[in-house]
Every structure is written in structure tokens, then in C-alpha cells.
Amino acid sequence: xxxxxxxxxxxxxxxxxxxxxxxxxxxxxxxxxxxxxxxxxxxxxxxxxxxxxxxxxxxxxxxxxxxxxxxxxxxxxxxxxxxxxxxxxxxxxxxxxxxxxxxxxxxxxxxxxxxxxxxxxxxxxxxxxxxxxxxxxxxxxxxxxx
Length: 146
Known about the structure:
The chain has one helix at residues 2-26, and strands at 32-36, 50-54, 69-73, 77-79, 81-85, 91-96, 105-110, 123-128. Helices cover 17% and strands 28% of the residues. The longest helix has 25 residues, at 2-26.
């Protein structure tokens, strides 16, 4: 009976997380289709990349492509990212120059400037890095024997 209760609790928790994840993106401002990590995210991995996808605007039309994002960690300070346009030509992947510190809050300031004005609104948000990052065990995780 306890096992059934534990399994139902786990399923309910995952279902709640899955159903509420759509609400995170409902708060995005004009012009953004996808942001990762999402605003308010918790337990983000320290080596996470920042991913931005625009609704209709193309990164190639950015006037300030290399400088449209400011990343500041509450422990790490200012972090310089390396931007890369994904193969869909609408998504930008920012690779931070260093990992974020465990447990820190990361503030993101997006200030895209396009050739055609008013395509995307500037947007500020934050997320939190996991205080204890997951580690991947060495060896074959499917190996159960000696």
C-alpha cells in the first residue's frame, strides 16, 4: 500500500510539473517564442546554455548580435557568453564563458536591437542554479554485475 501511495505521489508531482510548465512561457513578452532556462527556473545545471528563440524576427537582422545579452551571476559576477545561431536561423544559443556557481541566482538582460524597430521587446529575468549539481556516474550505468 505504501508503495502505491509513493508511486502515485511521484506521478502526481511529475504531472503537476508537466502541466504547469506551459504557464512559464505564458509570461514572455512580445517577440519571444522560447527562452531556456525559463524565467524563474530552479535547479538549473551549472553548465546550462542560454537559448533564445524569436517568434518572427531573425537573429541575422540583429544590429547588436554579439552584445544583445548581459549575464550576471550573484556569485560569479558578469559572464561573457559566446553566441551561435542554430540551424533553424531563428534560435540563438549562448554558451557562457564559465559554469555558473552552485546555488547562485543568474540575471539575464536581453536587449535585442533589430534593423526593423519594435520587433522584439527588451526582457529581464532570472533563474536559479542548483545548489548541488547532478553528477554522472562513471562506467556503464546499465551494468549491474561486478
